[in-house]
Structure formats: C-alpha cells, structure tokens
Design brief:
The complex is a heterodimer of chains A (about 280) and B (about 290). Chain A has about 280 residues and is α/β, with parallel strands linked by helices. Chain A is built from seven helices and nine strands, in the order βββαββαααβαβαββα. Chain A has helices at about 55-60, 105-115, 120-130, 150-160, 180-190, 205-210, 245-260; strands spanning about 10-20, 25-35, 40-45, 70-75, 90, 165-170, 200-205, 215-220, 225-230. In chain A, the strands form two sheets. Chain A has a six-stranded mixed sheet, with helices on both faces. Chain A has a three-stranded antiparallel sheet with strand order 2-1-4, covered by helices on one side. In chain A, helix 2 packs across helix 3 (about 120-130). Chain A is globular. The radius of gyration of chain B is 25 Å and the shape is globular. Chain B has helices at about 5-35, 40-45, 50-60, 60-95, 95-110, 115-125, 130-155, 155-165, 170-205, 215-220, 225-255, 280-285; strands at about 265-270, 270-275. In chain B, helix 7 (about 130-155) runs antiparallel to helix 9, helix 9 runs parallel beside helix 10 and helix 10 (about 215-220) runs antiparallel to helix 11. The chains are: A alpha/beta (about 280), B mainly alpha (about 290). Chains A and B meet through helix 2 and helix 3 of A and helix 8, helix 9, strand 1 and strand 2 of B.
C-alpha cells in the first residue's frame, strides 16, 4: 500500500490497570501491565482464556479507558501521541461480522465510509487489495456466498483499509477449522509486509504466536500482567514450513514453560466473564 | 428448466391445500343442495358455494364502493400504525427507561378488547373515516412495535463494537447496522399486522358506518341475504390474502439479501477494469 496517510505506530503501555465494578467489590482484569511495541513490528500477546487479553485490546482500540496507567500511540516520526484511538486503530474481531446486506466490496469499504471517505474513493482504495488478498472476482458477492476463509479475508481487508498504522487482531482465526486456519496464517504472513502497519495479535495458540510474530509477550491469568517476553528470530519470509524447524520447537518449549510458570497450565481455565 | 423447478415446487406446496379446500367446498355444496333444500328456506340460511359465487357477481356493483371504502380505511390505518409503531420502536430502543416504562403498557394495551373499544371510538369521533382508521391502527400497532423493538435489540454487540472502532457514533451505527439488521424482524411483525388490518376495518364498520364491507355485511344479515354476507366474507379474505402477498413482495424488494445470497454485480471503477463478480453458487444454478 502506498497510502501516505498510513504510518506504522509505536505502542507504549505503561502501568496499565483495569478494574470492573462487580457485585460485592471489583474485578481486576489487568494489573500494572507494561508493553512496548516498536513501529512496524508484529507483536503477539499469548495468554489463557480470561487473562484480560480482550480487555487489553479494547483499551488499545479506544473502546475502553484504563483505570490506571497510560496508553500512548506514536505514529512513526511524530513527537506526540494520537489524541484519539477510536477511528484510528484497525480492529479485527474473531468472527468476520460482515453485513449480509452489503457485497464483499461494500463491506470492505464500510469503515472508510463511516470515517467520511466518499464511497467512490473508498472503493478505489479497497478494490486493488481484493486482488492482493486473493479475492479477485468476489467483490460483488454477498457474504453468504463466500467461504469462511474468504469472509475472514474480507473482514481483514475492511480493518486494513480503516487502520492508520496499527492493527489489532483478536484471535482472528479462532472460529475457523484447523486447515483453513493454517491457510489463513500463511496468507497473513504474505500480507503483512504489504501493509504499512504495526500488528498486535491476541491469541491462546502458541504455534500461531511463534509463526507470525517478532516478539511474543506472555500474559498471566487474571489480573493480567506480562510475565515474560520472547523475541522470535525466525527468518522471514516465513511459511508453515517454519513450524517444523528445531528453532521453532525451541521457541514453543520456552513459551510453554513461561505459561506453566505463571500458572496458566495445569489448572482449570477461569470463567470468561470478561469477554 | 431453471424456471420449471420453482414452479414445480410451488405446485407441490399448493396442491394439498387446494385439494382439501375442493373437498370441503364439494361437501358443502352437496349438503346445501340435497339436504338443506329439503327444509323450507334451508338453502337460504346456508347457501351453497355456487350461490355465494353467483351473489358475488350479481352484487359486484354494490360490493365495489364498499370494498373501496374498506381498502381506504385499511391502508390509512396501517400506514399510521407503521409510522407511529416504528417511532415507538425507536424510542424504546434508544432509552432503557422508556423501554421499561412503555413495554408493559403496550402488552397491557393488547388485553383491551378492541371490539369493546370500537363503539366508544364511534361515540367520540363519529361515523366517518377516523374511528375505523383508529381501530385498524390499534390492531396493527402492537405487532409492529414489538417486532421493531426486538429487531433493534437483537443487534450483535460485537458489530456495534466494531463500528465504534471505526469512529462511528450512535446515529451512524443505527443507520448502518441496527436499522437494516432489524428489517427482517420488522417485516415479520408487518406480515402479522397486515393480516389483521382488514378485519380491524370491518370491526370498525360493524359498529356504525355508511360505507364499507362491515356495514354491508350487517345490512345483508338483517335482511336475511346470507349469500351476500358470504360474498362479502370472500372479498374480505381476498383482500387480506392480497395484502399479505403484497407485503411478501415488498419484503423481497427491500431485503433481497434475506432470500438471495449470491448475486452478480458489475462494479465500475474509474481507471480499473470492471470486475464481474460471480459467487460460487452461480455456477450451480446456471446449469
């Protein structure tokens, strides 16, 4: 994308805590979370269900505000952080959430239209990506006629054209079957370098985190905080074959050890009340 | 042959009820002709279907202006209910307090027998168009409000969340997500409302009117023209069915995505090759 409005964003999260009022007290979702994601890199947040992953993404997207601490997004080269996160951060949900009354192309442009871009210009920006994302010929199809993987690609496209340098991926392939998920991961690996963006992926899939990311941060069970980070130095371009290397297995082993040490393995998963 | 398949399935759907209706009508015809005719005045009390059809044609000139009046009341009353009902549905959706305050009242309002209210409406508003329109409106109002409010309410919260990340405000979310998403539910309410709307008009006329199928039926009853009563009933049923089918047609035009998941569309872009998009299902249906 040669879109000049898109500049990769550096993310700085400092001493972030989030409390939710609950009957008879408060629920602490996140506590003193520290996270720095360099501009243009791909970061994964790995954690068990109910560790506050979705809360963290909601705060990064601007849907919720921190109870304590700060979140700052710096576009590359800018001295001051963005004033407003809503409308600037691309958010890709687990389900594709396409509108059944809009064609694939009109679904891809809906975010831009909401942001005040004319329909014509929005189409001009989105349509070239249909070709790049392997969706050529399906611009006029309704979501009901698309496969799960294609719908998810349209959903990704919709977030990608709306984002200004930061994309949040909330277990984006969690709803897909294993084979489609593998295909989508490989597809995403190819798509990443074409987008001038920073990525933050939230997942509970260790392999997915290693395969896609430059750095994996492990989140503890509630109240969530980062218990460890691991830089992934697998050479790019990567593919699913990268997962069969010894290096990959070593990374997986170290991440599993971190999860075990933080108490995420070998105990029943906490309820999902925070989702 | 692409056209034949839906035609054949339509035939399969229509055949059993058509056969059943034919049998009932034949039995009725036989009973009226051979059993009741033995009694003095018997076939006048329950005229045979053939006599009803004859009455329908003989009285066409009489039925026409009354039918026109009933249609007018129905359409105006339904339109009113649609406007006010949608307004209420939006109000209920916008404010949880209003939902709590109004929803129970709406349900209670349905327990008031409209047949009992109709004479009061005539008392208050005279014998003209207004009381009939109000009866139709009262009958149609409830299903529209409830279906509309439920439709708005059923919006996927994740979808609202996604649109908020685009920077969308409340109004944009309503227009882009909640309203179109509520249309299927709203239409099921409209289908119920339209089915009752003609009956509502007839109720209103029954109490007191100069024109309309309701008052025509009453006059015919008082003068023992039972065949004419049945003829009016046939017209009322035909009107209800016609309006129902019309609604179904409008529904298909307004929310085609509910019925047709694949589509062919040519997207013309400046400086870009036109993209003719075909869904995978197209290949199947084109065989």
């Amino acid at each position: 994308m040669q879109d000049t409005r898109t500049t990769p964003i550096r993310v700085e999260v400092s001493r972030l805590s989030k409390l939710f009022p609950r009957e008879g007290g408060r629920l602490e979702a996140l506590r003193d979370l520290e996270l720095v994601v360099p501009a243009g890199s791909f970061a994964a947040i790995l954690g068990p269900s109910g560790s506050g992953k979705s809360t963290l993404l909601n705060i990064l997207a601007g849907l919720e505000e921190p109870s304590m601490g700060s979140v700052a997004l710096f576009p590359r080269g800018a001295g001051a952080p963005l004033q407003r996160r809503l409308g600037n951060v691309g958010y890709m949900p687990q389900r594709d959430l396409l509108l059944p009354w809009r064609t694939a192309l009109d679904n891809a442009t809906v975010g831009l239209e909401v942001q005040g871009v004319s329909r014509r210009e929005a189409r001009e920006r989105a349509l070239p990506l249909f070709r790049e994302f392997g969706l050529e010929g399906f611009a006029g199809s309704y979501p009901g006629a698309l496969s799960g993987g294609m719908r998810q690609r349209v959903s990704f496209l919709r977030s990608a054209v709306t984002a200004r340098g930061l994309m949040l991926l909330d277990e984006p392939f969690g709803a897909l079957d294993a084979i489609t998920r593998a295909a989508m991961q490989e597809w995403l690996l190819a798509a990443i370098p074409r987008l001038q963006s920073t990525f933050i992926l939230v997942t509970h899939d260790v392999d997915e985190a290693v395969l896609l990311s430059d750095r994996v941060s492990v989140l503890s069970p509630r109240p969530g905080h980062i218990v460890g980070t691991l830089d992934i130095d697998l050479p790019r371009p990567r593919s699913l074959d990268s997962a069969s290397t010894g290096q990959f297995a070593a990374y997986r082993g170290r991440l599993l050890a971190m999860l075990r040490a933080s108490g995420s393995l070998g105990r029943p998963a906490p309820d999902e009340a925070l989702r | 042959m692409n056209l034949m398949r839906p035609l054949r399935s339509l035939l399969r759907t229509l055949l059993p009820p058509a056969l059943a209706l034919g049998l009932i009508l034949a039995a009725w015809e036989g009973y009226s002709r051979f059993v009741l005719s033995a009694l003095p005045g018997g076939s006048r009390l329950l005229p045979a279907p053939s006599a009803v059809v004859a009455a329908l044609f003989d009285n066409a000139a009489l039925l026409a202006p009354h039918t026109r009046q009933t249609i007018l009341e129905t359409v105006v009353g339904f339109g009113l209910a649609l406007l006010v009902g949608l307004g209420f549905a939006v109000l209920i959706d916008l404010s949880p307090l209003l939902r709590q305050a109004l929803y129970p009242l709406l349900v209670v309002s349905q327990t008031v027998p409209i047949l009992a209210v109709a004479p009061l409406l005539v008392l208050w508003f005279g014998f003209g168009l207004l009381p009939k329109v109000l009866v139709v409106g009262l009958v149609c109002f409830f299903p529209i409000v409830v279906a509309g409010a439920d439709g708005f309410r059923s919006t996927d919260p994740d979808l609202i969340k996604l649109f908020r990340t685009f920077g969308a405000g409340r109004w944009v979310i309503f227009r882009q997500v909640r309203f179109p998403g509520a249309l299927p539910s709203l239409f099921s309410g409209i289908r119920i409302a339209i089915t009752y709307s003609v009956i509502g008009a007839v109720w209103g006329e029954y109490v007191g009117a100069q024109w309309g199928l309701g008052i025509l039926m009453q006059r015919a009853q008082h003068s023992y023209q039972v065949a004419l009563v049945f003829a009016a009933i046939v017209v009322i049923a035909a009107l209800s069915i016609g309006l129902f089918l019309l609604t179904a047609l409008v529904e298909r035009l307004v929310i085609p995505w509910r019925f047709r998941y694949e589509a062919e569309e040519t997207v013309q872009m400046p400086g870009v090759q036109p993209v003719v998009a075909t869904g995978p299902l197209d290949n199947v249906s084109a065989q």
